[in-house]
Amino acid sequence: MTVAPGTLVLAGTPIGDIADAPPRLAEELAGADVVAAEDTRRLRRLTQVLGVQPRGRVVSYFEGNEAARTPELVEALLGGSRVLLVTDAGMPSVSDPGYRLVAAAVERDIKVTAVPGPSAVLTALALSGLPVDRFCFEGFLPRKAGERLSRLREVAGERRTLVYFEAPHRLDDTLAAMAEVFGAERRAAVCRELTKTYEEIKRGPVGELAEWAAEGVRGEITVVVEGAPEKAEELGADELVRRVRVREEAGERRKEAIAAVAVEAGVPKREVFDAVVAAKSAQKPL
Questions:
Q1: Residues 6+ positions from 249 with CB-CB distance below 8 Å
Q2: Per-residue model confidence as pLDDT tens digits over 65-85
Q3: Which of 268, 267, 278 is nearest to 235 (CA)?
Q4: 0.90 cut: is pTM over it?
């Protein structure tokens, strides 16, 4: 007798306030054959608050064992089990464990559904005060400074609003890198401890936010950054150099002039810098 495959359920969990738990979450926790949790201790606290006792088997499913445990969960699904996947906060597979399992389930024609829940990405975006009609979620930036700058340069001309997650101890370096690449005047919002007691939304130019963050920030962080300004025209290297020269003649230092021209032209600062260096090498007057 052939057994019909089960169902994989991705369940959103509160990002802060436990009262934000979706109504279906308790029902799914109680009825699942297997509950795969990023942190079983946090799951225990969640079920206690919700007043529910999982009847199924509870297993851990986190970054360290995700690859090894995925085949086991797929076998359970193929055997007809209903597998519920929960992470510490928000929606599984969005910068959290889950992608491997979803991909494996889809490959085997196993049904995948979700219990919609709170999202730090959408909550921060809505609260930022920045355009929300089009956006990109970029997740976490690389930890190494050089790799972080390279990743930011890739999206320097992106017109859509950008959303990032960041660790509090790296926030000042990240904002400083954004100021260098995007321009210090690019608008941004740092959303800290969303839906929690000490929720804070700090809005302003990214350069000012970098100075604020240098004093130390705690909590879970989501950063929303305004997209690149629309280019009124494509500016060639000679025009970029000319604009830098005009600003220098008005008394600005070259570094500040390059940064300002990059912002007004809607191009990465590196592009203006390279144009200036090339002009100097060619002995063109600056």
A1: none
A2: 999 999 999 999 999 999 999
A3: 267
A4: no
